[in-house]
Design goal:
This protein has 13 helices and seven strands. It is of the alpha/beta class and 277 residues long. Helix 3 crosses helix 4 and helix 7 packs antiparallel against helix 8.
C-alpha cells in the first residue's frame, strides 16, 4: 500500500498520505488525500460531511470519508482514512493531519452522526467550525426509543412537525413543550437529552449558516454505493488504495462523458474541474 502511495507521490507531488504504527510496528491509522481532493476542498470546502460507517474490512479498519458538494450539487470527496479504533485520540490525529494537508483551512460547518468521540475531537481540532448532527440518524431512532409509547404514531408525527416546520427558535421551544405535555413525555430521558442538545440538530438553530443544502450525512450514501463495485470487507490493504483510486478515475471519466453529452448542464470550467477531469 505504501509503495503505491509513493508511486502516486512520484506522479503528482500534491498527493498526500500519512500513517502511524503502534509499539510493535503494526499499522494503526492511515490517511490519504489526492490532488483532486485538495483542489476540491480549496473551492468547495465550506461544508464537510464526515462518516465512518461505510465498511470495516477484515483488518478491522473502518473506512472514513470526508465528503462535500460542488457547485453542481454533486457529491465530491475531500479525503479518506482507515482507522483502527474510533476514539477521541484517533479522530484528533485524523482531523489534525487532514487539516494540515489542507493548509489548516477549516470549514465553516461539519456534519456527522452522534459519535461522542468525533464531537470531542472536533472541539479541539476545529474550534472555528460549527458542528451539526445528522438529523436523519436521530429521527431513525424514534421507533426504538419511543416505539412503546401508547400513542407513538401520533407522537412521531407531532415531533417531526416541530423539528422540520418550526421557523425560528422561539416557535420550536413553544411547540416542543406543547408536544411533550400533550403526550405526557416529561419523564422521557431520551427526549430530554435531545432537547438539551437541540442546538446540535434542530434546523431552526443552525439555519443562519450555509449548509450547501445538507442536513444529513445521507449524501455520503452515494459515495458508498459508488465504491461498492470496488471495495469490500475482503479487500486487502495492498489493494485498497489502488482500487479507491481506480474508482475515482472512473468517476472522473463519467463526469467528462456527461459533460460532453450535456455541456449546458456543466457550464463552468473551474480549476477543480480541470484537475478532476
Amino acid at each position: 500500500m505504501f509503495s503505491y502511495f509513493q508511486t502516486m507521490v512520484d506522479d503528482n507531488s500534491d498527493f498526500f498520505y500519512t500513517y502511524r504504527v503502534d509499539e510493535e510496528g503494526r499499522l494503526k491509522d492511515v490517511l490519504w488525500v489526492d490532488a483532486r481532493c485538495r483542489m476540491a476542498y480549496e473551492e468547495f470546502g465550506d461544508v464537510v460531511c464526515l462518516d465512518s460507517t461505510y465498511l470495516t474490512n477484515e483488518y478491522k479498519l473502518p473506512f472514513c470519508n470526508f465528503v462535500g458538494v460542488n457547485h453542481h450539487g454533486q457529491t465530491i470527496i475531500f479525503g479518506c482514512a482507515l482507522v483502527r479504533r474510533e476514539t477521541v485520540e484517533t479522530f484528533e490525529w485524523v482531523y489534525s493531519n487532514w487539516l494540515g494537508c489542507m493548509n489548516n483551512k477549516t470549514s465553516v460547518a461539519i456534519l456527522t452522526d452522534q459519535d461522542p468521540a468525533m464531537r470531542k475531537a472536533l472541539k479541539t481540532t476545529m474550534k472555528g467550525t460549527t458542528h451539526r448532527w445528522c438529523i436523519w440518524h436521530i429521527l431513525q431512532k424514534f421507533s426504538t426509543k419511543l416505539g412503546k409509547h401508547p400513542n407513538y404514531p401520533e407522537l412521531k408525527v407531532d415531533l417531526e412537525s416541530v423539528v422540520y416546520d418550526s421557523l425560528d427558535i422561539e416557535e420550536f421551544e413553544r411547540r416542543w413543550a406543547e408536544v411533550i405535555k400533550k403526550h405526557e413525555c416529561e419523564t422521557d430521558e431520551w427526549l430530554e437529552g435531545l432537547y438539551g442538545e437541540r442546538d446540535m440538530w434542530i434546523p431552526a438553530f443552525v439555519k443562519h449558516l450555509f449548509w450547501a443544502g445538507m442536513k444529513t450525512t445521507q449524501r455520503i450514501e452515494s459515495i458508498h454505493s459508488f465504491f461498492d463495485g470496488y471495495l469490500s470487507r475482503h479487500t486487502l490493504l495492498c489493494e485498497f488504495v489502488e482500487r479507491y483510486c481506480e474508482a475515482l478515475e472512473v468517476r472522473a471519466a463519467q463526469y467528462y462523458k456527461n459533460k460532453r453529452r450535456d455541456p449546458l448542464k456543466y457550464p463552468l470550467q473551474t480549476a477543480y474541474q480541470r484537475v478532476f477531469i
